Amino acid sequence: MKKFLLILSIFLVGCSNQPGTTYHISSPSDEESWPYPFVIYDGQTYKLTGEKVEEDFKGEKLGEVKRNIVNMDVDENLVEMNFDSTGLNTETPLYANIKEKDSILYEENGEYYLAKKVEGFE
């Protein structure tokens, strides 16, 4: 019994709120209402995959992200436009993908990643 009380008290002390300690409690947020991070180009939605590709996949520059709309989904007047994204910073370059149809590339920190076309996304 003493061993149980000792373990319990160690656990409770470890779980207590210490001054200066920040705790994150999960709750629904604006960001969680989007099904996945995406970018819009030429009227099509492309899911950001995080899948790295070689530079030889890179074609012509298509443009740059103009707006990050991750926090705008609660705005009933939001109109999604070309070069909007929920997962990329503004000015992130977008490129054609010369090796795979139905995808484009985005560049982050000198690396290139796939964004795959999503069919039927509204």
Describe this structure in words.
The chain is globular, with a radius of gyration of 22 Å. A hairpin with a 5-residue loop joins strand 6 (93-97) and strand 7 (103-108). The termini are far apart. A six-stranded antiparallel β-sheet has the order 1-2-8-7-6-3, with no helix packed on it. Strands 4-5 form a two-stranded parallel sheet. It has one helix spanning 2-15; strands spanning 38-41, 44-53, 58-64, 67-68, 84-85, 93-97, 103-108, 111-118. It has one helix and eight strands. The chain has one domain: Metal Binding Protein, Guanine Nucleotide Exchange Factor, Chain A (Beta Complex). The relative contact order is 0.22.
CATH topology: Metal Binding Protein, Guanine Nucleotide Exchange Factor, Chain A
Query: In what range is the share of β-strand residues?
Result: 35-45%
Q: What is the 3D shape?
A: globular
> How many strand elements?
8
Taking all Cα atoms into account, the compactness measure Rg is 22 Å
CATH architecture: Beta Complex
Order of helices and strands: HEEEEEEEE
Number of domain modules: 1
Helix content: 10-25%
